[in-house]
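Quick one, T. Sequence first:
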Amino acid sequence: MVNLLHECEIMTTRWCDESELRVPIDQLRRFAERNHFTVERKLKGNSYKYKLIRNMIPVHFISGEEQTEFSFMDIADIHIGHKNFSEKALRKKLKFAVDNKIPYVFIAGDLFEGICQEDIEGAYTKQLDWAFSIFRDYPLTYYVINGNHDYSFEQRNLPNPIRTLSTRLIEDGINFCYFDTYLMDFIICGVVKRLMHVERQDFSKKSIFAALKLKQFDDAGMLVNTYKGQSYPVRFFQVGHIHVNVQMYYSKRKVFISQSGSFVKNDREEENANIISGRVIDQKVFMN
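Structure tokens:
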């Protein structure tokens, strides 16, 4: 199945000939515009070339400068439904968040496994019920975006599973906030936490890929976002899709980078969550 996120990210970096597109242009156009791109087209020879221009990065306000202390948990790539999904590991992390009164949990995509299962409708129901049975036990505030696996259900003409899960959990009293995008900014303590399902993964550079992606945003002048006329710098950058746990600091732009790993079991049993806390003073971050 074509990874629509991957296709979009490729087309932000270069012009693609119509013959290179692996999905119908109308489908790609709808998906791109939904994720805040403009589709540009030019005629070269006898065929069209296409490129995506990122218009904006949507932003959600959590707290302003009057709140200086922050604490949140970063997780991603849960893959409920994968044959090696570790429910025990996920429950352990969510229980830790509840026990330690961590106010926010950010999930950077691929909450579900999805993809090309034969009984896709059965998988949809099973994975939704499984996710609901887990998250309803942990009364936290969640902020969740899409990953390529979550989108795969939509490509099989089913509703977005995270949206459906969010509706069910909110009805059950769990503050499970879904944002219909794979890239979202959150303002917390007067600075931006950027959440992204990163895609375009270079498998030879898994441990530093988030830093390379952040550098692309820097080169494009997109490490600042605006909310109600005020500018907020990006100070946290969390990515999903990598399945490798890494924390880094981009000193040039004063950004903390978080790759949180995954909940798919592996021989190394890597860490699969990052707890980040500290204070923000004058848009400067001081970590605990």
